[in-house]
Amino acid sequence: MDGMLPSRPVSRVRLLPSAVADRIAAGEVVERPAAVVKELVENALDAGASRIAVTIEGGGIERITVEDDGAGIEPADLALAVERHATSKLADERLIEIATLGFRGEALPSIGAVARLEIVSRRQGATEGAAITVTGGAKGEARPAPASPGTRVTVRELFFAAPARLKFLRGPRAEADAAIAALRRLALAHPGVAFHATVDGREVLSLGPATMEARAGRLLGGEFASHAITLAAERGPMRLSGLVGPPSLTRATPAEQHLVVNGRPVTDRLLRTALRVAYAEAIERGRHPVAALFLELPAPLVDVNVHPAKTEVRFRDADAVRGFVIAAIRTALGGAVSAPVAAAPLRLAPMGPMGALAEAPPPPLMGLPLIAPPRAAVSAPAPAAADHPLGAARAQLLATYIVAETADGAMILVDQHAAAERLAHEALKAARASGAVPSQALLVPAVVELDGVSAARVVARAGELAALGLAVEAFGEGAVLVRALPAALAGADPAPLVRDIADELAEDETTALTLRLDAVLARMACHGSIRAGRRLAPAEMDALLRAIETSPGSGTCSHGRPTWIRLAKADLERLFGRR
Ligand code: ADP
Ligand code: MG
What we know:
Layout: H1 18-29, H2 33-46, E1 51-57, E2 63-68, H3 75-81, H4 107-114, E3 116-122, E4 129-135, E5 138-139, E6 143-145, E7 150-156, H5 163-166, H6 172-189, E8 194-199, E9 202-207, H7 212-220, H8 222-227, E10 229-235, E11 238-244, E12 250-251, E13 257-261, E14 264-266, H9 269-279, E15 288-289, E16 291-296, E17 302-303, E18 314-315, H10 318-333, H11 355-358, E19 392-397, E20 401-405, E21 411-415, H12 416-433, E22 439-449, H13 452-460, H14 462-467, E23 471-474, E24 479-486, H15 494-506, H16 513-525, H17 538-550, E25 564-567, H18 569-575
Parallel strand pairs: 1-8, 13-16
Antiparallel strand pairs: 1-2, 2-7, 3-4, 3-7, 4-5, 4-6, 8-9, 10-11, 11-16, 12-15, 13-14, 17-18, 19-20, 20-21, 21-25, 22-24, 23-24
Helix pairs in contact: 1-4, 2-6, 6-7, 9-10, 12-16, 12-17, 13-15, 15-16
The protein binds adenosine-5'-diphosphate and magnesium ion (MG).
């Protein structure tokens, strides 16, 4: 019998040595430099700091320093502060009334377990400070040290004691970006506190104490600040305040939706959903509003002990929170959100094949009518147009759809934005494949306001963007100057275009640059001058139809939705029971 079982060492249950336990906890709490910055800044905020300075070097792997002017740590408490589960923030065992950002007592020991940690601190009013070091889990003795009131925590050689972690990190720039993003979220949540940050000696953030509105304006950009709608609502014990962007100012990702619950920046699905629902009828699908929302509710109604990084929360009454937030945003948006158009859905019978068009001969791509839309010419459609596969434009519906009629009596419905986007995308891809994308200088260069990090990110890619036809350059802190747009996008508004590209560049930095530039190209295409909601002259409509006919793959938009549908005469007859 014995021989049939794989031999396994007999093991007994035992307690892990504390150094091992610390390292395991470290894996959860400090997965990357941004998490270290977040934990240390949270400690500074919990200590009541009015000014916090963050220094990042070498992506935070070489060094992170967080200095505050908060309460400081008693020399006798220093050694305890770096022990696991040592916290000054839970007075008793009740985990339901947490008013501080930290409470788990895990950050400092976790950081000490995987890096070289040094804490220098002096209590406010004390005459002397003290310091302690923890090196790869080995705790030193606390010793007297010169210090100014407050605390300075320095983390060097992060993950030197957990080298496997290093493999999961991105480049120093991406790690520094992520750390600054974490800092921005905390800075937004605590507008009364001054924040300063440098990355490799360069100042990237300098914020004096401010009101919530002013802070949100600095962090989310001047354009947001000048158009945002202030919101303040109360229901029962819940309070919601903050700023929401107008429906016209949307982003390609929800990254600029900042949600703060009881002073804690969170990424909460429920609140994201509430935003989406509140704006659903006002913005295009797939776009995301910009918002800085501050929800306050009594601590027992929200559980923050859901995740080691404490970035998720659980609401005791999720429905009540969601309902309240949706109603509050809708009220704030007021007239900005119009009622949905009460259009009776057209029930389509199964459609006939679209064969004829699929076989249209492959045409030359360049010289698309769209590249220089003939906007001035407003004339009746040429009768001959009906002979083309997509026929002659007869009308525009909802400033969004083109209705055309073909010679054989079919009705063609075109989604003008989807089709124009697809065409622009194809044109851009073809131009890129054949060298550089032609660009067209703007008569007046446009200044686009961004936040500092996004602006730097766009400027850093100016070379690659120029090859895509977009000429940008730095323009002071938090802005870029756009000098030229891809010719295929002539007439597009540079501001939303550049902001989308900044968002795209901020997305997963591990993806190869060429792929990300492909994504940039797709984003660009979305900003062509023919958008939903624009009235088109008959000649423009016909030009669009002709361009679709001659562009391969134009039957679906870049997102895979159809760009046009065809109802044959027989289909129409069936719909009306004539057949
Ligand atoms: P937690 O924040 O969950 O309590 P930490 O490991 O982050 O756990 O910190 C342990 C303790 O060290 C804190 O409870 C606090 O008493 C003290 N501490 C840490 N950072 C600071 C700081 N910047 N200023 C004052 N006290 C601090
Ligand atoms: Mg903490």
